[in-house]
Amino acid sequence: MKIFIAGGGTGGHVYPAVAIANELKYRHADWEIEFVGRSDSIEGRVAKQEGYLLHNIDVIGYERFLGKIEKTRVILKLCKSMFESMSLIRKHKPDMVIGTGGYVCGPIVYVAALKKLPTLITEQNVIPGFTIKTLSKVASRVCVSFPETVNIMARPERCIVTGNPVRREFGLFTKEIARKTLKLKQSDKFLLIFGGSLGASSINEAVKTLLWAYKDDKNVHIVHVTGDETFEEYKRSLKEEGLDTDKYKNINILSYTNDMPLLLNAADLVICRSGATTIAEVNYVGVAAIYIPYPYAANDHQMKNAISTRDKGASVVIKNDELSGKILATAVESLLKDDKLLSKMALKSRSMGIRNSTQLLCDEIEEILSTV
Q: What is the pTM of this model?
């Protein structure tokens, strides 16, 4: 069997694709799993890291705020990517095409459906994005993370709730093993901060107050992942403000990390955006969280994602336009000093996780292919 998997633009679309690919290879070592996407985007980098071939297609996203000239360029690129997708399918003859979201997966999944190939798409968020909602009209199967998403799709009868695929690596650690690996004492508090694969400038700025508050605190350890694009400028700005984090053993500022499964398993508290894949990983492990939803997400889906966890007692939510260093520091301090509350939130978080989501989704893939 040869499977094409497409999804990209952000880690929220790429890492579910990797989870699916790895599970399929685990089950079927002889299957050929290949990625489709942009080689200059995150899917290109991650596919290479994971050892998968990526077929490049030239496509860009359609944003509502683009001007007429930019929108025309997007449409022309879309037409080009459709022809590239036709050529890829004709040349490589995949048995099935899977889309995990983002504009990248649109052309290849749509062309595959037109050619009557089996297709499966996944939607991570409560409210589906434009690409997945459009593809749900033609896809053979639609796998969603939330039950309330089913009736929003064009073909509800083709939908199944599987949860959001999470990589096996997140299940390889216990909290005890992860903390021993990082040389953390049982009494230490470990705070993990990240803004997603692209970073988040508003979070980075607010976190400066935390860095000042906990610098050289032997009982509080912080790992802050800034994102590649802002790392150098962020480190420089901290030094200009008089805070050289390299001097403090309890603070580690990173541009990017491949060790998220290890770090997340070790964490007592996470501060991050509320993309569906991020929440799925946090809930899979079971960690208390402070979510700061990205305010420009389509249909405000990140806020809806975050509220669903807050209402179940697993998180605190701070709106991006209300975020400040003082507000964030106050929220962190109140949580770090309350072990019972942190433990309760962690248990609530874990109770929301679907730990066999990848397996359920791959069961669907096998079932579809068994009828071909």
A: 0.85
